[in-house]
Every structure is written in C-alpha cells, then in structure tokens.
C-alpha cells in the first residue's frame, strides 16, 4: 500500500486532558511530528511493561493473544492506523498464516500497538492522519516530560537513595505483585545508573 508513514513508539505520559488516562506518543520514523493517543490504564500498563522489557509472572492478555497466534502459525505483519474521526483513532491488524492467507482484523489502537510491540511488527498510518493529528514538539518537549516528573518525583527521589541491589529486589517485588507502574519507574532508575557507569 502506497502513501503510508511508518511510526515508532516514543513512550507514555500522563494525560493532561483526561484524568486517570495516559497519552501514548507515536512519532514519524522520519520526521518531527508526534501523535498523542489517549489510552486507558490497563493498556498503558501493558505497553509500559513491554517498553521497559519487564516480564510479568503471568502472561497478560496481549501476551496470551500473541502466544495463541504463534501457536497456530499465524503472525502479525503490521498494524495500520487508518482513521481519525472525532478524536478517535481506528486501527487494523494484518495477519498471515502458514499458507500465506492474509486477514485484516479491526482493533482499538491501544490494543493493536500492545500486540505489535510483542510481535515486533511495524506500525503505519496515512499522511492525512499525520497532518490532522500530528503535533511538532520542539522546545515544548522538555515541558512535556517535566509534567510526569512532578507527579512521580517523590517516588523517583526515594529510588535514588537505594542501592542497585535494593532496586533489583524492589523491581522483583513490584513485578510479583503486578505493580507495573512502580516497576517501570524502578527499571528507569536502574537504566539511568547503568548508563552513568557505562
């Protein structure tokens, strides 16, 4: 299909528009425009643990879906965000089986992206959607990342005082009790320190 733009996942921030929701930020692979998509807590959690390379003790719904598909020789070829109407994005997943038969399945964008992450499948959209929903962040990008910092600042300050060994123990515990947002914060602190030492 022509005239499509490949997207990458930049990350997740707290939504400034909707309480109790998150903004999943996608970006053009070759460009400056960003698309923020409002998603729920469960989907944000599912995407965040994958972005942070965390392994939950039990498979989450999106893990189960991908394992089921692979078990029957079905693979995800791509996710395509094909529509943006009244603030709502619509997506479809393109699957292929062992006999090269293809099928498209309609999906919520948050679920499609959570599955794409696990299946390592590319994400595309149209130039029209990028033009309509895309935002260019320049100096504003620092302000945008500062907001979640304020809300999680106290947690992060507490983490800075722990040793790497203690952080790893806390990470294991957070994953065990399925506190994935806490686990993501701990993982970020471990990554930050590893980068410092490198």
From TrEMBL:
Q: Which domain of life is it from?
A: Bacteria
Gene3D superfamilies from the entry? Bifunctional nuclease domain
- Pfam families on file: BFN_dom (PF02577)
What sequence ranges are listed for the domain BFN? Answer: 4-137
What protein does this entry describe?
Bifunctional nuclease family protein
Q: What is the lineage of its organism?
A: Bacteria, Pseudomonadati, Bacteroidota, Bacteroidia, Bacteroidales
